[in-house]
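Hey, resending since the last one bounced:
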Amino acid sequence: MVQIKGRPDAPLSLDQAWLDDVISRAANAISSGSTISFFDRFSQITNNSSRLFAPDGVFTETGWTRVSNPRGGAPFETIHSIGASYDTTTLYSLSIAISISALPYPSTYPAISQLMLGDDAVIGTSFDDYIPGYAGNDLIAPGLGSDLVHGGPGLDRISYADAAAGVSVSLASGYAFDWGGMIDRFIEIEGAVGSAFADLIGGDDAANILEGGAGDDQIFGWQGDDILIGGTGIDWLDGGDGVDTVSYETASVGAVVRFDLGIEAGTDADGDTFVSIERVRGSNFADLLIGGAGDDFFAGLDGDDILIGSDGNDHLAGGNGSDTLYGGAGDDILYEGDGYGIGRDMLFGGAGNDQITAHPYSSNTFIAGGSGNDVIVGGIGPDTIYGDDVLPDGQSGGSGDDLIDTGQGDNTVYAGGGNDQITCGQGTDTVYGGDGDDVIIEDQFGGSSSNILMGDAGNDRIGGGVGADYIDGGTGDDTLAAGTEYSPASDWFVFRSGSGRDTILDFRPGSDHLAIFADVNGTGWMTEADILAAFHDVGGVATLDLTGGNTITFIGLQSTAFTVADILIL
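The structure tokens again:
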């Protein structure tokens, strides 16, 4: 054992080969501007006022005074780590005795274990380091030596972004090799970042995040639900088992992904190849993502993206920007995605029973459900919604039974054929139910906007809301209602030739109005007096006979309740 007493005036060096040595002294024994070096077979400490190293040995604490100054200061700037928060943690004013044991890997490392409690960014040295991550989601760059890295709890990643050559990393084996011959050993590591060169990166049985960086990389996820980030270069991305995702979030230009061909083109470098990939996250630019025969999951993120599901039950999320989504065949889920709904999106469900949702804060969305029984929900903006297909001449086609919720905003809905259910929200909506037995209602807890609700052919049920609504059942035997009982607004019920045998549940004489086309009886002309004369009671209930099998029954009213003021001839 060697004892050092007093503050040295010049650098000192001690050499006691092949023995365990103890260097002890108060704070001024290890101080800024001095160098104390100890060498034996396994261990080395060097202090030159900027770093404290113990590459292959162990620090054993016998007396700390304090660890402070988390934003930098003298005499030591770094100790292998960033502290419990985001700042560089340093040792300041310490009194410590250090014993160094000749171990192949240290069993304790108190200086780092006290500091690394959060999400750390750790950079190793040019020596053989032991780097523990402890709690938190850590990013650890081992450095140039042959290091031992222990990630600890949390989602920890090992990074070779600054490596001078390509690396080979295997999370399953716990080893990493660089082309310079150095070997790193690691445990409890969940992700890896490659170099700017050609890397070989493999995951393990868990869910991993594997990033290649620049260069032509080969990345294998193996088991688990992995995220693979190729980076620039022509990469081979093999997800293996599990539900795996390829991400282009870090790309500098938009991505073109062809699941139908199994390739990528158009990002930082063309030609990535996909194997066993189920999901794609695009870039923050304009992406083109085309699915294949399977069930695809695409997320466009920012930019004006085009997402095409093709066959399969696909999941398409647009994100910010003016996006266009095509579900294609299959039962697809389409929604505008995260963000603030910036831009005007166009969502086409295609064939199948689709679920289509506009962003709650979208500014203006066009939605066409396509064939099949679709569920459609509008956003806060002025949406245009077709329950079925939109043909080239602007007409709607198909006959699916659609479920449509307009949401907020001033929307236009073309439900198309089929027995559709349409719920209007707080905006001023125009709804065309189309053929089929439709149900069109206003949200009774919505706003007081005036809506146009038209049923067309079929036996429809239409209910207004708080505002002054225009209600036209169309042909067929329809059931109509003004809506909220105590609403002060006046609703208009419209009837024309061929309107059928209709029923109004809550007409309010003196407030609501009957708007009747003059040719309703086939003669081409009628007056308000003619209409009033056609009222009579059937079973104590007021009934208006418009001839030709067209009648209107007014529940809860008798014919004497009506006057010509309730009638308008169109």
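Residues 419-570 form one domain.

Sorry for the duplicate.
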